Amino acid sequence: DDSEEDYYNADVQEYWIISSMERSVEIYYLVAGRYVLQDCYILQDDPEEDYCNADQVITLRAFPNISLTLAEIFENRD
Q: What distance in Å separates the CA atoms of residue 16 and residue 57, rounded to the nearest whole number?
């Protein structure tokens, strides 16, 4: 993937792919010279369901003071 090569050349240690259509977040980290999928989330925001994860907090590894919940990431994206 050309974008991954660009990220690698720029020494990007982490990148996220966010899909508003799927309401998903994939987080990739640079490990031993290649990007590895570390975490994958799909927003489930029905509070009546046991698998509701809208309050799941995700923190940027490179900037640990920056955190978002899944609900915040997809807020106003309907």
A: 14
